[in-house]
């Protein structure tokens, strides 16, 4: 731990999150708002902070985040990946814990496109024999 701030980027669906992490008292801000106020749902807040819980650093680091694109769920997933990557930059010894917990894997699932002649991506119009 030689420099003051550690930064990382995470992505999920159409969302991108940039995180700056520093040692502190546990102040988490996203786009200038508190994390709880920005993500609104407790489940999303817990999802985004899961890497800090796994490494027992919850309340010991400050996060300043900027998210762009997608919805709240995608942004929470992008934050989770960015936080995990920033933790590794801060302390490379945490890599095995985060990797084992699956926090370093980018969730590659994307929305499937809608096909013509169908109401949605996979849904079909009802078949009529007569």
How does the SSE layout of this entry go?
Blueprint: E1 5-12, E2 15-23, E3 28-30, E4 33-34, H1 35-39, H2 42-54, E5 61-68, H3 72-90, H4 95-101
Helix pairs in contact: 2-3
- The overall pLDDT, averaged over residues, is 93
Regions with little confidence, pLDDT below 50 for 5+ residues:
none
Shape: elongated
User: End-to-end distance, in Å?
Assistant: 73 Å
Rg: 18 Å
| Helix share, percent | 25-40%
- Secondary-structure-based class equals alpha+beta
Helix/strand order, N-terminal first: EEEEHHEHH
Query: Can you count the helices?
Result: 4
Main sheet attributes: strand count, strand direction, barrel closure: 5 strands, mixed
State which percent range the strand residues make up. 15-25%
Strand order of the largest sheet: 1-2-5-3-4
Strand tally is 5
């Amino acid at each position: 731990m030689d420099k003051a701030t550690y930064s990382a980027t995470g992505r999920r669906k159409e969302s991108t999150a940039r995180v700056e992490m520093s040692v502190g008292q546990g102040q988490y801000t996203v786009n200038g708002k508190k994390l709880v106020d920005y993500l609104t749902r407790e489940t999303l807040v817990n999802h985004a902070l899961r890497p800090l819980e796994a490494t027992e650093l919850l309340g010991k680091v400050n996060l300043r985040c900027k998210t762009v694109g997608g919805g709240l769920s995608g942004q929470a997933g992008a934050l989770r990946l960015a936080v995990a990557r920033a933790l590794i930059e801060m302390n490379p010894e945490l890599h095995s814990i985060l990797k084992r917990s699956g926090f370093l894997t980018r969730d590659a699932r994307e929305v499937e496109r809608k096909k013509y002649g169908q109401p949605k991506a996979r849904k079909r119009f009802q078949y009529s024999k007569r």
